[in-house]
Amino acid sequence: MPAEIIDGNRLAKSIRSETRRQVKKLKFTPGIAVVQVGDDPASTIYVDYKQKDCERVRFHSEVYRMSERATQDEVIDRIQTLNGRKEIHAILAQMPVPDQIDGQAVIDAIAPEKDTDGLGAANLGNLMINRECVLPCTPAGIVRLIESTGEEIEGKHAVCVGRSSLVGKPIGLILLNRNATVTYCHSRTRHLAEQTRSADILIVAAGKPEMIKADMVKAGAIVIDVGINRLEGRLVGDVHYESVKETAGYITPVPGGVGPMTRAILLENTLKLAISQCG
Ligand code: NAD
Predict the structure, then answer these.
(1) 102 catalytically annotated
(2) How far apart are the first and last CA of the chain?
């Protein structure tokens, strides 16, 4: 039987509607600031999307585009000014940054209570020790997609292909905190297919177009495809969708799976931060 498609667009839409409904009830306006350094075209597009999303749910949003030649101190100064502004409840530093800047140092300069991407060392550290924290947007979106299947997480074998601090590592920790048994795979993993075939929940965030084929997936598995790649003019994930959807129990499409959820969770995180600062 072909897999059930997990519809990220629909879930993201419901998160946006709920966020907007909550915002209407507030006596203040949640405020978010995005800092972009340089003019990487993909980053510019992402920042524009984020700003539009914020407008749709009636947040106040500010975008700071800094020069490609900005120094680390200048960027951190900007963040610190934003940390001090009461009407800005959430700050996001768009990655990547130019080579002269240490991206993690910039993220770490964001006050933890305003770190809406949850990627600062303080929030990631709290995730590590299973303490309440801001969950990074993509991993938090992935968990919601898994939950939407109605399948239990506890006791399942989750395999994460990819170990970045942005996706792979935090999603593994979140699932571990939810009592899954977690295996991390990466570019040096031997016998990858043996690992992926044993996954009840397979999360692929490697940035390698269509690397996961049907014979690497257990029948009935939940397959979450995080990858976004251009292949011969098409947008494809890290999973070979057409073949894997015949084997998996559930699968996310690309586009329309994880991507829209990442954006929706940013709104939800921002709302939570604003309420915790003003509510
Ligand atoms: P990254 O390059 O930082 O990390 C890639 C990881 O994959 C590394 O840990 C590497 O060891 C592993 N890897 C690479 N080749 C492998 C192989 N052949 N076998 C096993 N592991 C391998 O990437 P990232 O930032 O984690 O992003 C991964 C993908 O997810 C990219 O395509 C990116 O565009 C996408 N992404 C999507 C969203 C979204 O919202 N949909 C968000 C973030 C990232």
Answers:
(1) no
(2) 48
Distance 121 CA to ligand 1 centre (A): 20
262 close to ligand 1 (CB < 6 Angstrom):
yes
Let me know: does 143 contact 11? Beta carbons within 8 Å.
no
How many CB atoms are closer than 10 A to CB 152? 13
Q: How far is it, in rounded angstroms, from Cα 9 to Cα 7?
A: 6
The answer to whether 117 is a known catalytic residue is yes
Contacts 24+ apart (CB under 8 A), 122-128: 124/165, 124/170, 127/170, 127/173, 127/174, 127/177, 128/173
Cα Rg of the chain, angstroms: 19
| Ligand 1 in reach of 162 Cβ (< 6 A) | yes
Q: Quick check: 127 and 143 in contact, CB under 8 A?
A: no
Residue 231 Cβ < 6 Å to ligand 1: no
Amino acid at 104: Q
- Cα distance between residue 88 and residue 218, in whole Å: 46
CA pair distance 208, 25, nearest whole angstrom: 43
Q: What is the pLDDT along the chain (279 residues), one digit of tens a residue?
A: 899 999 999 999 999 999 999 999 999 999 999 999 999 999 999 999 999 999 999 999 999 999 999 999 999 999 999 999 999 999 999 999 999 999 999 999 999 999 999 999 999 999 999 999 999 999 999 999 999 999 999 999 999 999 999 999 999 999 999 999 999 999 999 999 999 999 999 999 999 999 999 999 999 999 999 999 999 999 999 999 999 999 999 999 999 999 999 999 999 999 999 999 997
